Amino acid sequence: MPQLGRTCSLVQRWEKRETLNNESPTTSGSIDTIPETSTLSHTSRACAMAGLFVLRLMPELIVVALLYGQHQRQMVHDNMGSRSENIAMIFNMGAGYCDVCVTATTGGVSQIKALSGSYIGGEDIVQKKMHHLLPNMDSLYLSHKNNEMKAMGLLRVVAQDAVIKLSSQDILLIDVDLENNLRICKVLGRPKFEEVNRKVFEKCESLVEQCVIAARVDVDAILVGGCSNIPMVKSLVLELCKKDEAYMGMDLLEAVVCSAVLEGAVASGVSDLLGSLGLLTIQATPQSLGIEADGHTFVPIIPRNMTMPTRKEMWFTTTRDNQMEVLIVVYEGKEKKVDENCILGYFKIMGISLAPKGIPEISVCIDLDASSVLRLFAGAISP
Q1: Signal sequence: where (predicted)?
Q2: On the chain, which terminus has fewer CB atoms closer than 10 Å, C or N?
Q3: Domains (ranges, CATH) in the chain?
């Protein structure tokens, strides 16, 4: 499962004030955005512990697609845009997750056509830069003493600063004293930085290719997330989308925040100059949802890129004679081996009537609503 330390949730508070009988009651709620759907339950529990009333809990890409729909709707109103369908590819790369989607927008309705994502991000880039600056870092700092932790923290700050500065300049001088007779003095160039992080960039390229190929159309390229400011990331996305420049209607660092505010307005029934904010985003499943079958293989029940809400059922059977119980383990992912996918949960079906293997029928049904809330139903039918 993804570590909680690698997820980063943004909570945008939305407040609606009304005046009634000379009083000004305030009703407040939160629009919570998550990097990807497997962190939904963790974020939901965190919000409950913080005392937040959650209006919506949505993936970051989905709220950005909503903002793109609002932009296109406004352009049509201003006679600057087309009433036909507009297609955009949204690339979002943050600290620990990178995801890409293709959205089709017309008349304020955005439909997600394709989705792909992977656990790569700024943290991977920083770690690779730290190992580049100090190749024997892991062997030097094994005991995790206070002075070693301090040196690691300093090295991390230097690596983060190098990533940021090499996004705007071609060369950088690193000179840092890590104490204990250890000093790093290096000249870093952008080509070397790109070489060190080649595998990360190749993974980004693969994610974009999956969505662009699935879309098979000309798209606007929308880049959001802090890592989208890295020149290599920006250039490979634009090259694959066959664009000279990115979509200029959004700030890459503020797009998710602005989108969350817009979603709060939609959820609260606020009107704009065009009337009601009649905006809607039809989501799709970012990964396949399924269970573990015999041989530790992953059997998808709901395939990726299925329009939500959706509901699918599949039938299974026992693998042993007189088997009275079955453990159902639910996974999210795209790999054939279950160990390479993300486990979502598990439960046990008990009380199956005694019968030879292959005779009992076991139904597993996965229901996924428009808010990405997953419900699983299972039961056994014996002769």
Answers
A1: none
A2: C
A3: 4-115+199-282 (3.30.420.40), 122-196 (3.90.640.10), 288-381 (2.60.34.10)
Separation between Cα atoms, residue 256 and residue 68, nearest integer Å = 11
> pLDDT (tens digit, 9 = 90+) per residue, 45-67?
888 888 888 877 888 888 888 88
What angle (nearest 5°) sits at the alpha carbon of residue 201, between those of residues 41 and 128? Answer: 80
Q: What is the pLDDT of residues 195-220, one digit of tens each?
A: 999 999 999 999 998 888 766 677 88
Plot region of 50 (φ>0 → left; ψ -120 to 50 → alpha; else → beta): alpha
Q: Which two tokens stand for residue 154?
A: 């300093």
Q: Quote the CA–CA distance of 109 and 86 in Å, as a whole number.
A: 10
Which residues have a Cβ under 8 Å from the Cβ of 44 and sit 6 or more positions away? 32, 54, 57
- How would you list the strands of the sheet with 54-59, edge to edge? 10-17, 26-34, 54-59
Q: Rounded to whole angstroms, how far apart are CA atoms 218 and 243? A: 9
